Structure formats: structure tokens, C-alpha cells
Amino acid sequence: MRQDTRLSRLLHVLLHMAQTDAPMTSQQIADMLGSNAVVVRRIMAGLRDGGYVEAERGHGGGWRITRGTEEITVLDVYRSLGSPDLFAFGFSNPRPSCLVEQSVNETIAESIDTATSAILEKFSTLRLSQIEAEVRERMQKT
């Protein structure tokens, strides 16, 4: 199963963007992430729609962060991705007639709901500025 790395990638990009006043082109971001500029534009669109970044066209254009890192939470970035599933677990039969399978499905669904709520609550309290401060600490140690 392939992991969805978009959240960590977008956080990475936003923190780099916050460190510069210069716009970053989709190609620069793609090079940084080892990705493709088309993919970058696609995932940046959600951030743009949420008002966290803007895109300037033409020579000298690119993506700019439009809010301070203290204003953006990990939950904001997660939602800009369309709130993808946090867990890959699923049911072989979502509406089973077997009572055992019904109980298994209900137990798994309740556990996933509880874990999802806890993660989203944590995401809502984590600001990019906190990650930025950790980056500064790591840089001072090197």
C-alpha cells in the first residue's frame, strides 16, 4: 500500500515559502520535492482556494504564502487536500448479512472514528509556526 505524503509535502513547502519573500515557481517546488510541476499545481490549488497561498503568473511569478505561519494549522493544510482518509482500513463487505462480520465492521469503524477525531483535534492545535520554531532549534544545533 502506498502512503499519501501530500500533507507532509505541503507543510514542507509552506515552511520554505515562509522563509523567503521571493515567489517559488511550481518547477522549483517540484524539484525540491522530487515531483512534477503539474502535480505541484494540483496540490497547491487547495491551498490557494483556502487563501493560504497565491499564484502570480508570468515572468518573476510563482507561489507565495499569504498568511503568517502562526495563522495556519496542520488541520488547515489537511483540509486543503480535501480531508483525505487518514487510515487505509476498509471493509470487504460494508453491509454484511453475517452477524460476526457486522460486529467486526462496527468495532473497526468505531476505532477509526475515535482515532480520526483525536488526530484531527491534534492537527487543529498545531501551527506552522511551531514547526518553524523546531526547525530553527535544529539549525542552531548543527
Total tally of structural domains? 1
Q: Tell me, what is the CATH class?
A: Mainly Alpha
**Low-confidence runs of at least 5 consecutive residues:** none
Corresponding CATH superfamily? Winged helix-like DNA-binding domain superfamily/Winged helix DNA-binding domain
How big a fraction of the residues is strand?
A: 5-15%
Shape: elongated
What is the count of helical runs? 6
Radius of gyration: 19 Å
Q: Kindly report the average pLDDT value.
A: 94
Compute the number of strand runs.
2
CATH topology: Arc Repressor Mutant, subunit A
Q: Top keywords for this entry?
A:
single chain, 142 residues, mainly alpha, Arc Repressor Mutant, subunit A, 2 strands, 58% helix, elongated
Topology of this protein?
Elements (H helix, E strand, L loop, with lengths): L5 H13 L7 H8 L3 H13 L3 E4 L5 E4 L8 H7 L18 H27 L2 H14 L1
Antiparallel strand pairs: 1-2
Helix pairs in contact: 2-3, 4-5
Describe the 3D structure.
By secondary structure, this protein is mainly α. Helix 2 (26-33) crosses helix 3 (37-49) and helix 4 packs across helix 5. The longest helix has 27 residues, at 99-125. Strands 1-2 form a two-stranded antiparallel ribbon. The chain is built from 6 helices and 2 strands, in the order H-H-H-E-E-H-H-H. The protein has a single domain (6-137), classed as Winged helix-like DNA-binding domain superfamily/Winged helix DNA-binding domain (Arc Repressor Mutant, subunit A). The two termini are 35 Å apart. The relative contact order is 0.14. Strand 1 (53-56) and strand 2 form a beta hairpin.
